[in-house]
Write a structure and sequence with these properties.
Number of domains: 1
Radius of gyration: 19 Å
Number of helices: 10
Structural class: mainly alpha
Length: 226
């Protein structure tokens, strides 16, 4: 790898990997925070109720796959180590687990909304020269990463959040079958990733992303009198 390639890799890592780490950490923190509100302090007691990416890092999902995507130009995705939750500490396990699981994707949608507001403010103050700038690019990447994490985690498979969310609405026998499939889920996700199956998720994500960016630019330009 040449010096230029290393510089390009470092540039892409800063643009994609750092926002990704923050989004993952915020996602896991949201799980732990809601779990604590519902009566389970397991994540807090195990040192997982924080925004430190090192405490949430999964070797494959947080490091290997994202870095491989940056190095080889493949679609960017990944996951973190799940926050531990003890259902026995919850007063209403089924309902509480639903909200604990949903907190992760909702936290990423919240961050995407924060990114939308940031784009509005930036465009309002920067005016026309905003296009092509690094700051604007980082904001766009931040929004799309959070949208992908939200939609990806809602796939109805254990151990993803979607598996726990759907558990509230399906018979317990079906849920048990989904749980027995959980050890194989990462391999299924990797196969979907390699085969291009994630375009099923990517299409609505990019559609929503385009809507958010276009509306943010319009609102920002209007407020800025451009």
């Amino acid at each position: 790898m040449t010096q230029f390639d290393l510089l390009e890799f470092a540039h892409k890592a800063a643009l994609y990997f750092l926002p990704f780490l923050f989004a993952l950490s915020f996602h896991e923190y949201a799980h732990g925070f809601v779990a604590k509100m519902k009566g389970d302090r397991t994540a807090e007691l195990m040192g997982r109720l924080n925004l430190n990416p090192l405490t949430h890092m999964d070797p494959i999902g947080t490091f290997l796959l994202p870095m491989s995507a940056i190095a080889f130009g493949t679609p960017f995705f990944g996951w973190a180590k799940p926050v531990p939750v003890n259902p026995r500490n919850l007063s209403r396990p089924t309902e509480d687990m639903f909200w604990i699981a949903l907190a992760g994707p909702l936290s990423n949608l919240l961050l995407a909304a924060v990114g939308w507001v940031a784009v509005v403010v930036f465009v309002a103050f920067a005016g026309i020269p905003y296009q092509g700038g690094v700051v604007f690019e980082v904001m766009q990447i931040f929004i799309v990463i959070n949208l992908f994490l939200a939609f990806f985690n809602l796939i109805p498979l254990h151990p993803l959040d979607g598996g726990k969310v759907i558990s509230r609405f399906i018979p317990s026998s079906w849920d048990r079958q989904l749980e027995t499939f959980a050890p194989y889920a990462p391999f299924v996700l990797i196969v979907l990733f390699i085969s291009g199956g994630f375009w099923i998720i990517a299409k609505p994500v990019f559609g929503l992303y385009s809507l958010l960016i276009n509306s943010a630019v319009f609102v920002g330009a209007t407020l800025g009198g451009v």
